[in-house]
Design goal:
191 residues, alpha/beta, 21% helix
Length: 191
């Protein structure tokens, strides 16, 4: 599975590992909003790596947990789903909007092979200081470069370079992010 080769998702060992993660996630999602420390302790046990100053708004879902690495100063809004059948690496200072799906898993196009329960998975890399808007879907094998913004509702099917604003379905680069964006931010009227 981690080598990017076809595998059967209902393998008893994989099923057992997913069930273990589901139990931890159930506990995480069931805690009171004030139980932040308890939620963070569960994430430290579930995920491969968590940095300092991370905040997950519940609910959160993942397949295994141990294939997810989170950097420093991470925030995700409600309903993050990470299908981590391959490694998911998220850098420092990343913001993720609500209802985002990060999907390393895929299935064969041909129905006969799909009925045999074959799957595949490719890693996803999200760089440092990335902002992913709400309702974004990130597909298997995608890398998103540092300092990039992905607009709400985008479906990311290919790599996105650093320092750009990208959006759409399929997601594409709209423009570079420049110092003018920094200089004009407080002079804009919002709403």
């Amino acid at each position: 599975m981690l080598a990017g080769e076809p595998y059967k998702g209902f393998d008893p060992e994989l099923l057992s590992e997913r069930q273990r993660a589901k139990e931890m996630i159930f506990e995480f999602n069931s805690l009171r909003p004030s139980q932040i420390e308890e939620r963070n302790n569960i994430l430290k046990k579930l995920l491969r790596k968590t940095g300092k100053n991370n905040f997950f708004e519940p609910p959160f879902r993942c397949d295994y947990g141990y294939n997810i690495e989170i950097g420093e100063n991470f925030y995700t809004n409600y309903n993050l789903i990470i299908l981590d059948c391959a490694k998911v690496t998220i850098g420092n200072n990343v913001l993720i909007g609500p209802n985002v799906g990060i999907f390393t898993a895929g299935h064969p196009l041909h129905a006969e092979i799909r009925k045999q329960e074959w799957e595949h998975a490719y890693p996803i890399i999200i760089g440092n200081s990335v902002w992913i808007g709400g309702h974004v879907v990130i597909n298997p094998g995608v890398s998103i470069g540092d300092h990039t913004v992905i607009g709400s509702g985008s479906v990311v099917t290919k790599d996105i370079p650093a320092n750009v604003f990208a959006a759409g379905n399929p997601c594409r680069v709209i423009r570079e992010i420049t110092d003018e964006d920094k200089n004009s931010y407080f002079s804009k009227k919002f709403g």
